[in-house]
Amino acid sequence: MTYAIIGSGNIGGAVARQFARKGIDVLIANRRGPTSLADLIKELGANVSAVPLKEALQADVIVLAVHFGDVAEVVKQITPKPGRIVVDATNAIEVPAYTPIDLGGRPSSAVVEEQLAGVRLVKAFNTLPAAVLAADPVQDGGRRVVFLAGNDVEANSEIAGLIERLGFSPITLGKLAEGGLLQQFGGPLVIQNLIKQG
Ligand SMILES: NC(=O)c1ccc[n+]([C@@H]2O[C@H](COP(=O)([O-])OP(=O)(O)OC[C@H]3O[C@@H](n4cnc5c(N)ncnc54)[C@H](OP(=O)(O)O)[C@@H]3O)[C@@H](O)[C@H]2O)c1
Q: What is the pTM of this model?
């Protein structure tokens, strides 16, 4: 299983940090190219490799950590491959205003999924502030909760397994029309920093 993160900013960097913490190999790509990531790679160590976007998009599991307005440009370059999953960490907000984008009530990840021909999508890593997501998930004798939702039961299970390997406690909320709405920007689970005890 190969992993890549698209976007090396607040959320991409936070997720990369968790891969590094657990010694799991991951590729990371941004718009400016690998040389712009030299400092981050030096800090995070050998498990995190900066590569061109095209190379990162060959991974089995691709974490999407770009602004919603940049999603279309990235996902149109993602090709179908058996087993491939896109993990959508985006929130549908206008930047820099941080106002919600009107999607007519549709789950934002369903809008992303529509653009992914034949590739499964799981929504995760979008509910916590980046600094919290980047911190050690083991807290006060428990593990920080990461919510996930998606329309493919097997993909949800695979990503729940990854979230667990990264040291978090996954909570699967069901399909995008149900759980996706709960965890997306404006939903009740956003900025809920929960610790599962035990
Ligand atoms: N910040 C938070 O606390 C937070 C919390 C939850 C969810 N989110 C969501 O997470 C997503 C990322 O937010 P962020 O704060 O991490 O943003 P950010 O710090 O501005 O980082 C965005 C990253 O996307 C990359 N990017 C943009 N277009 C690209 C393209 N065409 N190809 C490859 N990479 C591209 C940028 O590359 P360059 O660096 O080369 O410009 C940058 O590394 C957003 O959808 C946001 O709503 C953010």
A: 0.98
